[in-house]
Specification:
The structure holds two protein chains of two kinds. Chain A is 0% helix and 49% strand. Chain A contains no helices and eleven strands. Chain A starts with a strand and ends with a strand. By secondary structure, chain B is mostly beta strands. Chain B has no helices and twelve strands. In chain B, 0% of the residues lie in helices and 56% in strands. In chain B, strands 2, 5, 6, 10, 11 and 12 form a six-stranded mixed β-sheet that branches. In chain B, strands 3-9-8-7 form a four-stranded antiparallel β-sheet, with no helix packed on it. The termini of chain B are far apart. In chain B, 34% of the residues are buried. Classes of the chains: A mainly beta, B mainly beta. At the A-B interface, strand 4, strand 5, strand 9 and strand 10 of A face strand 5, strand 6, strand 10 and strand 11 of B.
Amino acid sequence: EPEVTQTPSHQVTQMGQEVILRCVPISNHLYFYWYRQILGQKVEFLVSFYNNEISEKSEIFDDQFSVERPDGSNFTLKIRSTKLEDSAMYFCASMWLVSSTDTQYFGPGTRLTVL
Amino acid sequence: AQKITQTQPGMFVQEKEAVTLDCTYDTSDPSYGLFWYKQPSSGEMIFLIYQGSYDQQNATEGRYSLNFQKARKSANLVISASQLGDSAMYFCAMRAVQGGSEKLVFGKGTKLTVNP
């Protein structure tokens, strides 16, 4: 069964450093998402991406964040200058079609630790 | 704006018994979708079940069923014949659609512990 994959599974970085989180969505899916889950809290929407541009972004997704689909398979989230409060689990999700019945499928997540 | 409320921070159930996890929602959209995801201790988010607002019947997927009461704005997850492997966090989520894009809005989750 096709699945969303994410690398790395765990990233440790120093405050102020840039990180890139990578995702490979399900191959025929058209819509891509990043969500964040701070430890012990609920999952929060960051950004949605379709047709090579951002469809919607949340208040969390400030100028320090960017997304890119550099080729036909990868979808990346870049944090330019990490802060302590960026420590969280980051989930990538993909979906084939925005419809009343389609489902977002999540990757296993990348746990980001900012020291 | 859409909102999901899960009022049970933790639930306990004996193995082989059924358990209901509560979820209430708030939306002004006439068309919406409700989801349940399972998050084991390993951290991944596993899709369990989906209910559309216009679906006539309650959704079922194996041991999972959704008790959808539209007038009460509730979408409770029922797990029958609980297994030890069901111990996990469970999140209720709602689809929020705006201008052709969509996102999921999550509740705070319920931690389910299945006792042997």
